[in-house]
Amino acid sequence: MPNLPPQLQAGIKALFPVLVEWAEKMEARALTEGVPLGDHLKNTAKVLGIRQPDAVRVLVVQTIPEPDNRRIVELSARFGLSFIGSAGIMFGPAIFVLGSFANDQRVLTHELVHVRQYETAENIEAYPRVYVRQIFV
C-alpha cells in the first residue's frame, strides 16, 4: 500500500480478517437469495472473460450492505469507497444491486468487471488485497 503511513497500513492489514469474514457472509447470502444472470448479462460476462458466468448471482436490495465494523466503513470512505453511495457491490460471484439499478446495464457490467478481478485473485480472502493494491497504483 504505497504512500500510506506504516501505522495506517498495519491498521488496514489488521482489518482484513474481519472484512473477509463479512464478505464471505454476504457472498453466501447473495448466492442463496440471488438470481442467475439473464442472457444479455451472461454474454457480457463471457466477453469480459468471466470463467463461470452461470455461477454469478444478482441480489436486488433496498440498501447496499455495509460491515458492522465502523473502522472498515470509515477507512473505505476515506479512500472514496462508500457503501451507502454505491449502486452495487460484488462479493466473489455474488452481486448486490440497488433496486433502482436492477436493470442498469452499466452498473451491472461494472460489477461483472469486479467479478473478473475476483476470479484473477482466486478467492475472496485474496481479493481485497488485490483490489486495494489496484486502487493505490
Characterization of the model:
By secondary structure, the chain is α+β, with helices and mostly antiparallel strands. The chain has one domain (6-135). It contains 5 helices and 4 strands, in the order H-E-H-E-H-E-E-H-H. The chain has helices spanning 6-33, 39-48, 70-78, 105-121, 127-135; strands spanning 35-36, 57-61, 88-91, 94-98. It has a 4-stranded mixed sheet, sandwiched between helices. Strand 3 (88-91) and strand 4 (94-98) form a beta hairpin. It starts with 5 loop residues before the first helix and ends with a helix. The model has no long low-confidence stretch (mean pLDDT 87).
Topology pattern, helix = H, strand = E: HEHEHEEHH
Quantity of strands, as a count: 4
Radius of gyration: 15 Å
Broad shape: globular
List the uncertain runs.
Answer: none
What helical percentage do the residues reach? Answer: 40-55%
Distance between the termini: 9 Å
- Strands of the biggest beta sheet: in what spatial order? 1-2-4-3
Most strands sheet:
4 strands, mixed
Beta-strand content estimate? 5-15%
Give a nutshell description of this structure.
Helices cover 53% and strands 12% of the residues. It has 5 helices and 4 strands. It has helices at residues 6-33, 39-48, 70-78, 105-121, 127-135, and strands at residues 35-36, 57-61, 88-91, 94-98.
What is the secondary structure topology, with strand pairs?
Elements: H1 6-33, E1 35-36, H2 39-48, E2 57-61, H3 70-78, E3 88-91, E4 94-98, H4 105-121, H5 127-135
Parallel strand pairs: 2-4
Antiparallel strand pairs: 1-2, 3-4
Helix pairs in contact: 2-4
